[in-house]
Design brief:
The chain is an alpha/beta fold. Helices cover 36% and strands 22% of the residues. GO terms for molecular function: nucleotide binding; oxidoreductase activity.
């Protein structure tokens, strides 16, 4: 099959991680793409990514600074991996040029930004895929099979809580700046997507939110080890960031979540936790409950039925005999019924990004909608902001429809102003 000419737009840490994913498809002889260009406003970043592509793919893409140039270099599709504030506008511009698009989540920095993108692409026949990787983890696919197969009975309760970080910088400075995304939104759009992937639409929430650590510290700026460096690709940029800075984005959120099905959820994300790092996620139903490991950890599920029967990992498979991973995920993770895998975080991160790319390529080739498109991307934003708007208002009940139609948006208003979308 003839390869699809593609460009990566945004050559920082996330763009590098996406290149790693593409190289995993190349290694497995499953790559539908020809990386013809890498695009960044900083020529040095573009050159570094082009050099990395030469090493990993065996061919060096051209470098350029904008979408028009990428198209002139032959790209018919783009993968947008810039910082979040540019996602919606670059995606709209790419669609207007007739390019197919995969864009990193969040699809917009606010709901207004996402609506602007939706208006811009209305009526287009171009593919728009949102790069949401967590749901593609084989363990999460198995959770979905347990729920859909009725193994848990009627779903009643979802729980997720996590903590860590203390007063250290999480990957990049922008993750602590409200007008650039903030850590609760950056991580939260992953987790709200997972809520609806498991249990369907969220209808309303109420929450408390805090900014606990008003000053954040970056040990990489003074020669120390980075506090967090997923994929090992952020060290150089972290060293150039301030050693300490003022945080403007809230760093802790505690919410109750109501699903259309009648299920209820508890969600707690504390990115200012000074104790031991913590993680818990589970889904509970009328027949049992499943404990779910952290995404990209490779650890097995633990399923308990009738309060006494416990199944772990592959022991679960006879309960969902029709469970099968898609062909690409099966090839990359060790088989169509992979339930756990002894791989490090960096490898799993690359493989899940490879799965995203494979699905994007198939959507282009077959002109079929991707699993996570614009509507799913917008809902992930809306549920996340429903929690944050509720928290900013002191805990009032906020519906997701309130967020989607713009009738509640005080917390987002300042962000809209900062990115040029204010009234």
């Amino acid at each position: 099959m003839e390869r699809i000419p593609v460009a990566i737009v945004g050559c920082g840490g996330m763009g590098t991680r996406h290149l790693f994913g593409l190289s995993e498809l190349e290694r497995a002889d499953l790559n539908p793409f020809d990386l013809v260009a890498v695009c960044d406003v900083d020529p040095a970043r573009a050159d570094r990514l082009a050099d990395e592509a030469q090493t990993r793919l065996g061919r060096r893409p051209a470098t350029c600074a904008d979408l028009d140039a990428a198209q002139r270099l032959g790209a018919v599709a783009v993968d947008i991996t810039t910082v979040p504030r540019f996602h919606h506008s670059l995606a709209a511009d790419a669609i207007a040029l007739g390019l197919d698009v995969m864009v990193e989540k969040p699809v917009g920095l606010t709901v207004a930004a996402a609506r602007q993108l939706k208006d811009a692409v209305a009526g287009s026949d171009r593919i728009l895929s949102v790069a949401e990787n967590f749901r593609r983890d084989p363990t999460n696919r198995l959770v979905k099979a347990l729920i859909e197969g009725g193994v848990l009975g009627e779903p009643r309760y979802f729980h997720q809580s996590s903590g860590g970080g203390g007063d250290l910088m999480a990957i990049s400075m922008w993750r602590h700046l409200k007008a650039e995304s903030g850590i609760l939104f950056d991580a939260g759009t992953h987790y709200t997507d997972m809520m609806e992937y498991y249990l369907g639409p969220v209808v309303s929430v109420y929450a408390q939110m805090r900014l606990f650590e008003k000053i954040r510290y970056n040990p990489a700026a003074t020669g120390g080890a980075p506090a967090s460096n997923p994929g090992g690709v952020y060290g150089q940029s972290q060293a150039a960031m301030p050693a300490e800075f003022e945080a403007t984005a809230d760093d802790a959120l505690f919410a109750m979540v109501n699903f259309a099905s009648g299920a209820v959820g508890q969600y707690a994300e504390n990115r200012a936790e000074h104790g031991r790092e913590s993680w818990a996620r589970s889904v509970h139903g009328s027949a049992g409950a499943v404990e779910i490991p952290k995404d990209r950890s490779g650890r097995p599920l633990v399923l308990t039925l009738d309060r006494t029967k416990t199944y772990t990992g592959a022991e679960i498979l006879p309960l969902v005999p029709r469970f099968r991973l898609d062909d690409v995920t099966a090839a990359l993770f060790g088989g169509p019924q992979a339930t756990a895998y002894g791989l490090d975080f960096e490898t799993v991160d690359r493989l899940l990004l490879a799965v995203e790319y494979a699905e994007f390529g198939n959507a282009i080739a077959t002109r079929t909608p991707p699993e996570v498109g614009l509507e799913e991307g917008i809902r992930a934003i809306a549920v996340c902001y429903a929690m944050m708007e509720s928290g900013a208002a002191g805990g009032r009940i906020v519906t997701v429809d309130d967020i989607l139609d713009g009738s509640v948006g005080d917390y987002q208003a300042g962000i809209d102003d900062a990115i040029g979308l204010g009234a």
